[in-house]
Amino acid sequence: MKNRISIALLSLLSLVACNDDENFENKVYIDCDIRNEVRVAVDEHVKNMDFTFKVCVARPVTKDLDVSFAVAPEMLATYKEMYGDDAVLLLPEAHYSLDGVSAEIQQGRVESKDIVVPFKNLDEGQGLDYTKKYVLPVNINSDGVDVLSSVKTVYFVIMKAALVNVAADMYENRAWPVWDNFTEVQDMEHFTMEALINPRGFTNKSYINTIMGIEDDFLIRVGDAGLATNQIQIAFACQDADKKTYRNHFTDPTMQLKADTWYHIALTFDGGEDKTDGADIKFYINGKLKIQGKSTATDADGNVMVKNKVNFMVEHSEEDNNKPRCFWLGYSYDKDRSFNGLMAEVRMWSRALSEEEINAPSHFYKLYPDEATGRFPEDLVAYWKFDDAKGKTVKDWSIYGNDLTGNQNFVWYPVSLPIE
């Protein structure tokens, strides 16, 4: 992934460390790894994909520097030896084009503009057998500054994508949508919250790992006072006529998680027709119902408070100066409650999904738009795939387009789900 420090850059840093700053030899390197996977979503009939990267130097060049690229079929054998993969095939010429692919690092600069390598005719039926992997070795050449020896050849590996191919690390980060006037999430009497999560550990300072929701209103988190630090808890609050808050929660020892393990979680909230006994809440882990109960709390006098709806349409803020709590992913109350792990496929529905829907084929990992319209349904009010693989913006694939914003750039990790 482009977010990780490449082998080339590590090599260059080592070179710099061993030489005086004024005397070390300037070298061309790339801002990606020497092995780069181009994962083709065959199930989505993807035809064309681009791979984008840059070439760089350690210090500004004294004149314009041209860098060129050429296919190097002879390097396929080197790839097989380096990665121990004798079954890969050379990518046929019909599926790429290097015509016009070049780069320039302008005088006084240290990096080029984006270089785009286009891949084409990738859909099934175009001559590619996706039971195999294909490799395109490309040599890098420069006319005035040597290319770092470890990156003179870059390899593009074209392969069938998994259903989920990338996830975001939420540790010491957080994300939020701007739902200030998004009435679809206002006073929701029926909803479903879903996510794929992979907890790295359960020992942050507060021993609470927040998944999503609104603090002191409706929240899915891991751990709390008196609970095992790896145990999921659904925490919510009811209010009486005087706006006094009374809290309750649902949890069970069967809701304990293991570190470094992927889970699909789903919570359904169904207000029903009877508004006197609270909403019916169900919580599933990997499609199995773990707990079920009513959204009620009891005040000091034994009176039952009822929560029939949740208002997620709260103006986003830092929650300072007595501003109301708002909706977050991976965060609640303070930074010590950030989610220590990976997230992907986060969704919100404006209805309570059935157990059958939650367990439908591929549902844990991917949703597909309607074949006729190419759109997702209106009751899918948010769909954050977390497949962006760069930056701090997470696209909302629902028809509403309420993207998430991270507090800082996410650290992105390649994954392959479901695990085969």
- Name the overall outline: elongated
Major sheet characteristics: 8 strands, antiparallel
Q: Count helical runs.
A: 3
Derived structural class: mainly beta
Amount of beta strand: 35-45%
- Please compute the radius of gyration using only Cα atoms: 25 Å
Question: What separation lies between the terminal Cα atoms?
Answer: 21 Å
Percent helix: under 10%
| Rounded mean pLDDT score | 92
| Total DSSP E strands | 28
Layout of secondary structure:
Elements (H helix, E strand, L loop, with lengths): L6 H11 L10 E3 L4 E6 L8 E5 L1 E3 L7 E7 L4 H8 L5 E2 L11 E4 L9 E5 L14 E9 L10 E8 L3 E6 L5 E2 L13 E10 L9 E6 L3 E5 L8 E9 L5 E12 L6 E8 L9 E6 L2 E7 L1 E3 L5 E3 L21 E2 L11 E9 L5 H4 L21 E5 L8 E2 L9 E3 L4 E7 L3
Describe this structure in words.
The structure is a single chain. This protein has 420 residues and is mainly beta. Helices cover 5% and strands 37% of the residues. β15 (218-222) and β16 (231-239) form a beta hairpin. Strands 11, 13, 18, 19, 20, 24, 25 and 28 form an eight-stranded antiparallel sheet that branches. It is elongated, with a radius of gyration of 25 Å.
Q: In a nutshell, what does this entry contain?
A:
By secondary structure, the chain is mainly beta.
